[in-house]
Structure prediction request, 198 residues.
Amino acid sequence: FDFVLADLGVSSMQIDNPERGFTYKYEGPLDLRLNPNQGISAAERINTISKDELEGMLIENSDEPYAYEIAKTVVEERRKKKIETTTQLKEIIEREEAVKKSCARTFQALRIDVNNEFEVLYEFLEKLPNVLAPNGRVAILTFHSGEDRLVKKSFKTLKKQGIYSDVARDVIRPGKEECMRNPRAKSTKMRWAIKAVQ
Prediction:
């Protein structure tokens, strides 16, 4: 390919559908799977995961500063009653007096986990040079720091190896006007790379 554009964002239609369990703003089943017929739901995951594993997941997948407190409270609460809905999980997190963003980060961490998003991204970044033509360009839109770190590291490493001739030194972010038109664009970061001619 001469050009590859990868948008790693989740569809707004999926996020806004309470039945899919992607948002804590509405009551719904705690599912979070991009393909509801594959893998296990976020509810199954959160009711069986160990405290240490949950803490690690929250740190690794969403840089959650209250990871220890949230993991501890979740494990204590699920002993009393299974966590099955989005609002149940939200109330548990808020009980811990964590900041509002902790809800968003916890849901993000769970979504990444149940969909194996980092593993899929690793695989994509690994295979990417094989499908790019010499001088072919790739641009990747990421929506949180975990994704951006993986893309940055891959581009940097492959440039050192001579696979990419040039890579973005800094991220490209949307302007104020675009963010006003589409508030969800706010967290977007774009990085690009150019395949070397070998």
In short: Strands lie at 3-7, 137-142, 164-167, 189-195. The chain has a mean pLDDT of 90. Residues 70 and 156 are 34 Å apart (CA to CA). The two ends are 16 Å apart (CA to CA).
